[in-house]
Specification:
By secondary structure, this protein is mostly helical. The protein contains eight helices and two strands, in the order ααααααααββ. A two-stranded antiparallel ribbon has the order 1-2. α1 runs antiparallel to α2 and α3 packs across α4. The longest helix has 35 residues. The N and C termini lie far apart (58 Å).
Length: 201
């Protein structure tokens, strides 16, 4: 097999894996939406491992489409020890997100069983209190940029901010994203590639 044939083969495999990842992802999302309206007749998404399929398909797509030259330059720039620490932190954050997704699926199932009206979903999240805590903490810390994980682990240990530690990861990240969208927060990336949040000026 010559070099050109090898490149074509590799591209074909990558496209196939991309296609499979997309099918798994959209199939999982479709099942969740369909389950919302037929939950009494269908197995719960968590029982079928839907959260893991969602994460797996998303991770596969990110790895395949990642700029590997950029990753290599990052590795060379920061060194193997720092690169390993960055990967460990990113893995830890990914695990927190997976746990949060599982918790959210369980909450959705519980809510649906108690309330047959899907329109009630808009009331599932109440972010006002968490938003105020985040704003107050950033004011308290002189608006020093902070990641979602450290908001839970560091800020959540401070007196008056304990609720940040007990809020599930997905709900916290959803609140942070909403605050970015409405202009309350801005984001940046740390040297290790973690997303940081601070109050908008």
């Amino acid at each position: 097999m010559n070099e050109n044939s090898g490149n074509l083969y590799s591209k074909g495999v990558l496209r196939l894996v991309n296609l499979l990842s997309a099918l798994i992802f959209f199939g999982s999302v479709t099942y969740v939406v369909y389950f919302a309206f037929n939950y009494e007749q269908m197995p719960a998404p968590a029982e079928l491992g839907i959260p893991y399929f969602l994460i797996l398909s998303a991770v596969c797509a990110l790895l395949i489409n990642a700029n590997h030259e950029r990753l290599s330059s990052i590795f060379t720039k920061i060194g193997p020890v720092e690169f390993r620490e960055m990967l460990e932190e990113q893995t830890e954050e990914a695990n927190e997100v997976i746990l949060g997704i599982e918790e959210r699926f369980e909450y959705i199932e519980h809510t649906l069983k108690e309330n047959d009206d899907p329109a009630g979903w808009q009331h599932m999240f109440s972010h006002d209190r968490i938003s105020k805590l985040i704003i107050n903490y950033l004011d308290f810390s002189n608006n020093k940029p902070i990641s979602a994980l450290r908001l839970q682990r560091v800020a959540g240990k401070q007196h008056g901010y304990e609720e940040l530690a007990t809020t599930n990861s997905l709900a916290l990240r959803t609140t942070l994203s909403e605050m970015v969208r409405n202009g309350t927060l801005t984001t940046s990336l740390s040297a290790r590639g973690n997303r940081l949040y601070q109050l908008a000026n």
